[in-house]
Write a structure and sequence with these properties.
By secondary structure, this protein is mainly alpha-helical. The protein is built from 5 helices and no strands.
Length: 91
């Protein structure tokens, strides 16, 4: 990432995306990726480890786990619409 001059936020997000206890600069980015990857895994998407999301991580960002799950379910329910939108960009 450094060789491509990617911003520190992107480099940090990728480097620490599997470390929920990371507390360095830009920690919000890998934490959110950690949450999203585990939520998607719960729905059979992706290959993140099948592990629980620490409650402390939700609390750190004032996220309600139930509301987060509702949001994920809404996005997944709209997957056909999202695919159609993405396909429109291909043409």
């Amino acid at each position: 990432m450094h060789l491509w001059n990617m911003p520190a936020e992107v480099t940090t997000a990728l480097r620490f995306q599997h470390e929920p206890d990371y507390m360095g600069e830009h920690s919000v980015y890998p934490h959110l990726i950690f949450i999203v990857l585990r939520l998607l895994r719960q729905h059979g998407i992706g290959d993140a480890p099948p592990e629980e999301i620490p409650r402390a991580l939700y609390r750190r960002y004032d996220l309600d786990p139930d509301r987060v799950m509702e949001a994920v379910q809404k996005v997944l329910a709209s997957s056909d619409d999202i695919k159609q939108i993405a396909d429109n960009f291909k043409h």
